[in-house]
Task: structure prediction
Amino acid sequence: MRPIRAIIWILIPVVCTGCAKLGNLDKLLTLKDLADHQEATDAHVEEREQIFRQMITDVEGGQVQPGTVKQEILSRYGDPIFVEYTQYQDQVAELWMYRMPVKFTGSDQVYLYFDAMDQVIAYEVKRQSD
Result:
């Protein structure tokens, strides 16, 4: 009789704990989904930061220069943060701005100017210390 009581006393907490987990399973799964989503978001931000750092290196190193086509910029660095049309040396130019993805102030910035033929006509790197 004693071994049966011992088994019952061991099984009661295990069974009750399992019931509590099942009752909150949807909440636990929601938390897991949020954690997974946050990891994916963090990985995406890190990737975009690396691409931006590479862009600065490329622009300053002469890999991006007048004549580089817009499609090449898009394939290398992705979409810009900001686009507007502006005047540049007596012509309308499309201005693209890149910066760190989540750093809204105090970030280095890269400005690319495109002509009507979708080619870079000028560029500028603004360091946060400038």
Remarks:
- Residues 25-60 form the longest helix (36 residues).
- The chain has a mean pLDDT of 84.
- The helical segments are 2-23, 25-60, 70-77.
- The CA atoms of residues 113 and 122 lie 5 Å apart.
